[in-house]
Structure formats: structure tokens, C-alpha cells
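hey team, just a heads up i'm posting the complex here instead of the shared drive bc the drive is being weird again. everything in one block, sequence lines first with there labels, then the predicted structure for the whole assembly after. its two chains so it's a bit long, scroll down
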Amino acid sequence: MAKFECSTCGFIYDEALGCPEDGIEPGTPFSELDDSWCCLECSAPKEDFFHII
Amino acid sequence: MKKIAANDPLGHLSLANTAWVTSKKYLYLSSLALPLVPILSAYIALKSGNGAWFWLFVVFFYLIFPFIDHLMGDDPANPNEDLSAELSKDRYYVKLMYFATAMHWVAVFAMSYAVAKNGLSWGWLSILGAALSLGLANGLALVAGHELGHKVNDKGQLAAAKIILACSGYGHFTIEHNKGHHKDVATPEDPASSRLGENIYKFMLREIPGAAKRAWHLEKARLARLGKSSWSFSNEIIQPALITITAYSIIVSLFGWIMIPFLLLSAAYGWWQLTCANYTEHYGLLREKLQSGRYERCQPHHSWNSNSKASNLLLLHLQRHSDHHAHPTKPYQVLRDYDNVPTMPFGYPAMFGIAMIPPLWFALMDQRVITWANGDLNKVNISPDKKEKYKSLSLKLTGA
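-- predicted structure starts here --
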């Protein structure tokens, strides 16, 4: 399970945890997030996230 | 208010609009020319011996520029997807920012030289004009620094951001803005989002210390994660601060003690430009709090926009602010204007001038904010002590 970080605000999407509050189940790969998904914290687009682990 | 998706389909451009978008390429050269205005004014002041010339850039910015902005009208062109991709890749636009970085430091040294040349015999009023003119240039340096500081995956641009922000000693801005403001924007927690009923002077007292504290806290936390001390050369607040201290020390040693108040005032007036921008960009707008305790995502209707051609060029599309928050790393040359977003009555530079006269600002803006929230003050970022005052205005506007 990988982690992706928002290049603007530093929010981390952890695939293992998902984002239950955003309707994203734990274990959801980043690649399966909708293209319109954006950072929970600062609303930066998905393409602004980079792979960290 | 209709919400616009950040990635809504792009319209087709007419040939005339495409020509305007591409001609902007060369008009952005004005970002290099603008720091030359205070330099030119200093040159004329020295040649003529008349210190009034030091005020040229102040007069240009607040009186002449808004007039040009009004005459040039709105900027209808948004680059379509193909053109955006092409423009985004063009390194020309990045190089302009690198040159601007150098030009702004030339302006700092040139103005300092000109002031020191005649020293106190210029008279305090002329020196004040020089400090404010350089302060305005420092404000434009912060706009370029904002652009560069968002390019976190490009080491060259991040380094240039530190250098240009150091012109006015505001090197903590990149951290504070990206990780702080973009996260907390349009909430009461954000020291860089102004509240309904808050005048700009009161806002400044919350914004400047609040932003500095937030930046330090964020950088301290980052360094702790890396196992490093806050007080190290890895600290990205200390790095640009050292550039400022070094450059200002050189200027003081070259041109004398008169440079201390001069540089401090010109730096402070640069900070004030940023205060004006922060005050304008999100005045009164509020993101709703969700049941989870988190705020809703920032959307296009959470920023005040303007789309006038001249100030789009001057401020590198900063006033296409909804798109900036939707796409924080998007380069300035491809930022888009949205329909149906909160829009200022004038371009940002004129609004900065208006903000300095609070009754005029409130008269122009308060009604717009309350209409934006459909009269519901619970949906407005409002000064806690001003709620009663605005109840009657809200009732009047909604006809309840």
C-alpha cells in the first residue's frame, strides 16, 4: 500500500487508510480515485499528488 | 450562486482571443520593466535634483494604473487545453520570473543608492516617496515569489522564490501560503483570509503575526519529522532571512545608517501589499463546516476574482483567483477566468487602494458578501464583534 502527498499543502493520501469520511474505503489504490478527486485539505487536483512511499 | 467545477470543459477560442493569449507572452515582459519604474524615477530625481520624482511609482500604481486597467477592459481569453499544454511547457515564462528576481534586487540597490546620494538633504517627504515606491516594487516581487514558490517540484524556481521574497524579508511566505493559507482559506482559522466587517488595519494585525507564527510552526514540524533542529540551515525560513540580512547589511555598510529606516519602511510597505492582496482575495467568504469537523473543499465561489487585462498582466493572473485555488501549481500564463464566481467591481490594484479607506471598502463590498451568502450570516466569515451590526443590513437586502 502506497502513500501520496499533496505538493501544495502536504496532505497525505494513505492507500491503507483510504478516506472513509470522503466515501473512500480503506485499501483503495490512489490510481482508482476518480480523476475529479482533489485534496481534502486544500482542494489541489489529483495530478498534484506525488508518490512518497 | 452557481458552482463551477474546477475541470469544467474549456470553450473554443476565437482567432482574436488566441492572438491576445499569445501576444501576452511579450506583454509579460512588463514584469521585468516594472521594477525599472522606481529605478527610472530615482535616476530622474538624481539628475534633476527634485526628490518629488521618487513618488512616480506610487502615483503610477494608485492613480494612473487603475485608469489604464479600466480603459483596457476585461480579458476575455482563456487558453484552451491544447494551448494550455503548450504554454505550460514553454520555459520562457519561467525565465521571465528568474529575470524578474534579478531586476527586483537591482531596484533595491538602485533606490538605496539614489536615496543615500543626497541623504537627508532630499527631505523626509522625498525619502518617504522612495521607500513607498520601492515598497510597491517589493509587493510585485512578492507576487512573483508567490508564483515561484508554488512550483515545489522545481528546485530552481523554489530557490528563486527564496531570493525574490528576500527583497522585503518575507521568505516565510512560501511555507505559510502553500501549507497554511491554501489549507485554511476562507475559514475563521486563516489569518490570511479577511472577515466581513474587519477593516484592513485590524486585519493586518491578525494577518502578519498569524502568518509568521503559522509558517514557523509548519517548518518546525517538517524539520522535526526529518530529525533536524528548527535552528539549522535546513530551515527554509532561516535561509531567505539570511539573504535579506546579508544584502541589507551590505547596503547599510555601503550607503550608511540612513538605509536602516529606509529599508525597513520599504520592506514593510512590501508586506502591506501582500496584506492588501490577502484582504481582497477572500473577504467575508466562508467554507461550510462538514459533520466530520472538516471544512468543505475550497471551491471557485470561495475567492474574489477580477479579470481586467492590465492587472492580469501586472499581477500574473493572481486575480483569476478561483482557478489558482483549484490548481495551485498551475503556471500563471495558463490560469483561467471562470463564469459565475464572486467578482470584484474593479481590478485588484484599484481594490487595494479602496481597501485603505475602510468606509469605502465596506460600502462597495459588504452588500456583495451578504448577497453571495443569500443573506445568511451563518454562511459568512464575519468578525465576531460585527454580527449585530450586519443583521439589519442582511434583513434589508433579503427583504425579510
